[in-house]
Automatic annotation (TrEMBL):
Protein name: D-galactonate dehydratase family protein
Pfam families, per database record: MR_MLE_C, MR_MLE_N
GO function terms (MF aspect): magnesium ion binding; mannonate dehydratase activity
NCBIfam families, A to Z: ManoateDhtManD, PRK15072.1
Gene3D superfamilies, A to Z: Enolase-like C-terminal domain (3.20.20.120), Enolase-like, N-terminal domain (3.30.390.10)
InterPro entries: D-mannonate_dehydratase-like (IPR034589), DgoD-like (IPR034593), Enolase-like_C_sf (IPR036849), Enolase-like_N (IPR029017), Enolase_C-like (IPR029065), Mandel_Rmase/mucon_lact_enz_CS (IPR018110), Mandelate_racemase_C (IPR013342), Mandelate_racemase_N_dom (IPR013341)
GO biological process: amino acid catabolic process; carbohydrate catabolic process
Domain Mandelate racemase/muconate lactonizing enzyme C-terminal: 128-261
Highest rank taxon of the organism: Bacteria
Length: 407
């Protein structure tokens, strides 16, 4: 079996999905997702200019060798652009492998360890009342876990993930302007207010609800340690990205002061970015995604290392990931002995379902994987013609005096 050609499509309903399609001489094709949020053209170009030419003529069943060829062969290794591009190829090759075998991808990893994988939704409120209402809404839909982000009194944009416009549908990150929005951040106001938010959530919803919170890299290690200790009593499922993720050893200080579960890793691109914190057991959940961390082959390696260090999975699932990478994660989640939770926000709009038809579904707060061969997601190229690339940015963050801070 040989790869004959491959194509990249950029665009989608409200998103710049980067979709790779790899064709073979036997008519079987595979699909991968290289969407690097708000930098989408870069992995697309990297695929077209450098990787696809090397794929032609290769046997798609040798996914390990092809992965090593692109990773070791690049010389300038790692980084989000090249790992998203390699990741898309890798997903597409597992898709082909599954289709050839007539098996869903999870069967190729070792079968199912569970029927449904618990997901969490984003509950966001520009103020506490709005947040509590949103949590109630998700709970009524069957969700057992929610990520809670709340507007902070006195902070103009209200904190990470809050639009400040009292409109939950707009809370998310993608900006449509020609230049990035600017947000203001104040750690002191945040640290003063958030414990009160957790207290009110527990008062209203009781102990069962799984409550997650994303600090989005905004605190210093000392602040995060003190915060974690203060909110321990509210029994969070996790505290995400308390400090900037590139400093693996910052977590030591946090660990010395609190037992709050820590989740980190959505910006990591390889095992090397998280190896020390996993081996030293400084985290509880690893947040990599199959897109940014080099596809199924490499993400699986990270999951296996995590498993022997009591670290569970919590794959990144922001809406920037297309249904293809969400399916790839769904297959890993079905198999992983150390599955924890899945962030899941592909809310199945009719346009998205038309572009990426699949039988995977989300019910009662669980992702249910379909038994279709491969990844179980298709791509409608006619639908794709409706969309094209539109430049977008994440916001940037400043402190009140103008100092740049971490988005
Ligand atoms: C966020 C991300 O979902 C999350 O946990 O931290 O959505 C993040 O802001 C985006 O993926 C950035 O592209
Ligand atoms: Mg996050």
């Amino acid at each position: 079996m040989k790869i004959t050609h491959a194509e990249v499509f950029v665009g989608g309903p409200g998103k710049n999905y980067v979709t790779l399609k790899i064709m073979t001489d036997e008519g079987v094709y595979g699909l991968g997702d290289a969407t690097l949020n708000n930098r989408e053209t870069l992995p697309a170009q990297y695929l077209t200019d450098y990787l696809i030419p090397c794929l032609i003529g290769k046997d798609p069943m040798n996914s390990e060798d092809i992965w090593q060829y692109f990773y070791r062969g690049a010389y300038f290794r790692r980084g989000p652009i090249s790992m998203a591009a390699i990741g898309a190829i890798d997903m597409a090759l597992w898709d082909i492998k599954g289709k050839v075998a007539g098996l869903p991808a999870y069967q190729l990893f070792g079968g199912k360890s569970r029927d449904g994988a618990m997901v969490y939704a984003h509950a966001t409120g520009s103020d506490l009342e709005a947040l509590l209402d949103t949590i109630e809404h998700y709970q009524s839909q069957g969700y057992k876990a929610v990520r809670v982000q709340c507007g902070i009194p006195g902070m103009p944009a209200g904190g990470y993930g809050i639009s400040g416009k009292n409109d939950d549908s707009k809370h998310f990150i993608t900006q449509y302007g020609t230049l990035p929005d600017e947000e203001i951040w104040d750690s002191e106001k945040y640290l003063r207010y958030m414990p009160h938010v957790f207290e009110k959530i527990r008062d209203r919803f009781g102990p069962e609800l799984k409550v997650l919170h994303d600090v989005h890299h905004r605190l210093t290690p000392r602040e995060a340690a003190a915060f974690g200790r203060e909110v321990e009593k509210y029994n969070l499922f996790w505290l995400e990205d308390p400090t900037p993720a590139e400093d693996q050893m910052a977590l030591k200080l946090i660990r010395e002061h609190t037992t709050i579960p820590i989740a980190i890793g959505e910006v990591f691109n390889s095992l090397w970015d998280c190896k020390d914190m996993i081996e030293q057991e400084l985290i509880d959940f690893i947040r990599v995604s199959v897109t940014y961390a080099g596809g199924i082959t490499h993400a699986k390696r990270i999951v296996e290392l995590a498993a022997i260090h009591h670290v569970r999975t919590g794959f990144h699932g922001a809406p920037s990931h297309s249904p293809i990478s969400m399916a790839a994660q769904g297959h890993l989640n079905a198999w992983a002995p150390n599955f924890g939770i899945q962030e899941y926000l592909v809310l199945g709009t009719p346009e998205c379902d038309a572009l990426f038809p699949s039988e995977h579904r989300c019910e009662d707060g669980q992702f249910l994987i379909s038994d279709a061969p491969g990844l179980g997601v298709d791509f409608d190229e006619n639908e794709a013609q409706r969309y094209s690339y539109e430049r977008r940015y994440h916001p940037v963050v400043r402190l009140e005096d103008g100092t740049m801070w971490n988005y």
